């Protein structure tokens, strides 16, 4: 009986992980579709209004790639990491690699179903609630999150 319950629970967890991966992929697609419109809107609104917080905390992401290191600050509710059009662009990526859901309560990192994976503190993850100072590795880039 216990074994059957455990197998059923494991099957449900696997199904939920697959659903999260599919949702992350769809969110990434929608995020890329909306990037140009969002940038145009920001260009018009930024000079006349302070940023809207939308319940998100201010997050600092330090990105280290080869000989390049930069620090980026965001207060967006959803931060994309990957290729062109992403909030955090990584040199060797063409598409969105991971999504960072940002709220006042939690910072959740989700791999967008990539073949190379996303690593937090050396462990491959599909989805993980982050702690300040966690080390994220995506391809040849190392990211450190602070808030």
Topology readout:
Elements: H1 2-45, E1 59-65, E2 68-74, E3 78-82, E4 88-89, E5 96-102, E6 107-111, E7 118-120, E8 123-125, E9 127-129, E10 135-138, E11 141-146
Parallel strand pairs: 3-4
Antiparallel strand pairs: 1-2, 1-11, 3-5, 5-6, 6-9, 7-8, 7-10, 10-11
Count up the domains.
Answer: 1
Helical fraction: 25-40%
**What gap, in angstroms, lies between the N and C termini?**
45 Å
CATH structural class: Mainly Beta
The overall pLDDT, averaged over residues, is 81
Assembly form of the protein: single chain
Number of strands: 11
Radius of gyration: 17 Å
Quote the CATH topology: Tumour Suppressor Smad4
Largest sheet: 6 strands, antiparallel
Strand fraction band?
A: 35-45%
- Count of helix runs: 1
Query: What is the strand arrangement across the widest sheet?
Result: 2-1-11-10-7-8
At CATH level 2, the architecture is Sandwich
Structural class: alpha+beta
- Based on Cα principal axes, name the global outline: globular
The unreliable regions are 48-53
The ordered string of helix (H) and strand (E) elements is HEEEEEEEEEEE
């Amino acid at each position: 009986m216990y074994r059957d319950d455990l197998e059923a629970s494991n099957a449900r967890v696997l199904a939920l992980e697959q659903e999260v991966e599919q949702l992350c992929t769809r969110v990434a697609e929608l995020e890329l579709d909306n990037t140009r419109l969002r940038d145009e809107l920001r260009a018009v609104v930024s000079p006349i209004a302070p940023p809207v917080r939308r319940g998100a905390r201010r997050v600092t992401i330090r990105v280290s790639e080869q000989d390049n290191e930069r620090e980026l600050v965001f207060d967006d509710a959803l931060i994309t990491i990957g290729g062109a059009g992403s909030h955090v662009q990584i040199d060797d990526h063409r598409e969105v690699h991971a999504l960072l859901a940002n709220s006042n309560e939690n910072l959740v990192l989700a791999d967008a179903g990539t073949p190379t994976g996303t690593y937090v503190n050396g462990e491959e993850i599909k989805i993980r609630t982050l702690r300040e100072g966690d080390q994220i590795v995506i391809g040849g880039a190392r990211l450190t999150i602070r808030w």
